[in-house]
Amino acid sequence: MPLALAVLALVCLxxxxxxxxxxxxxxxxxxxxxxxxxxxxxxxxxxRIPRTVTGLLVGSALGVAGAAMQxxxxxxxxxxxxxxxxxxxxxxxxxxxxxxxxxxxxxxxxFAFxxxxxxAVVVYVIxxxxxxxxxxxxxxxxxxxxxxxxxxLMNAILVSSQDTLDAFRFxxxxxxxxxxxEAVGPVLPFxxxxxxxxxxxxxxxxxxxxxxxxARGLGQQVALSRAITALGVVVLCGAATALAGPIxxxxxxxxxxxxxxxxxxYRWILPYCLLLAPVLLLGAxxxxxxxxxxxxxxAGIMTAVIGAPVFIWLIRRRKAAGL
Length: 323
Hints:
The protein is an all-alpha fold. 77% of the residues lie in helices and 0% in strands. It has helices spanning 2-17, 25-33, 40-73, 85-100, 105-128, 136-160, 162-172, 181-199, 202-209, 212-217, 222-244, 250-262, 266-290, 299-318. Helix 1 (2-17) packs across helix 3 (40-73), helix 3 (40-73) packs across helix 12 (250-262) and helix 9 packs across helix 13 (266-290). The two termini are 23 Å apart.
């Protein structure tokens, strides 16, 4: 845990230092401890702070949500798409642009969050129909079906409006850049509440790993426990997607990496995902800033470029991904 904290701190400092205008370490320290508004390097450092904070918040939210989602769905390939979160958020943003003319990021946030939450609720309600309740298989099937339907509706709107497509594509790519405090502030309470709720579900997820029947035999109220955990996942995924757009592989890869040294105990998996997921997201953002100077490649693209090979290697090394 101290090593994970140290790595996270170093990556945060690197996020403040590297970019189109690199900042020496001594200047970085001066900017953080004795800020001079007249110093251009100091101003650059402070302009990167909201971006770094966004990466911290979004990475932590996606990492913890991904681990909890894999546990509650008992699906090693679970990510925000399995509950229709990304599709719901995307359709809501498209609707906001098309019908209400929303053009600012702060407007996207509320539409995306509402769409993500509504989609997840619909998936859970559909999966709960029947005697068994919301089983892992029914959750996955309901999420896949809803995602397909919502994506079709979204594409129907986009092909009929070029203006909507032009505005939407910059949010859809997934990025932590260009986010100021006015965007971070409204989402911060939701991410904080989601983290507090989800981090305390470790024992619940451990029981789920044994199967619903065993968990029920241990005295756990399966439906209520799954609903509480799903609520935390929805809040985290919805807030992170609203702030940074749909970013793939963070919530999928990091829990698998963490399990390699923590084992299957979610009481340890969740805290480590809280620390290491931002390392992946901020690291991808830093690499994206450096490999295409003076421009940059967005973090949503870089997480896929970095995360996909790592995930394939993990699966091949372990021969199977299982929970």
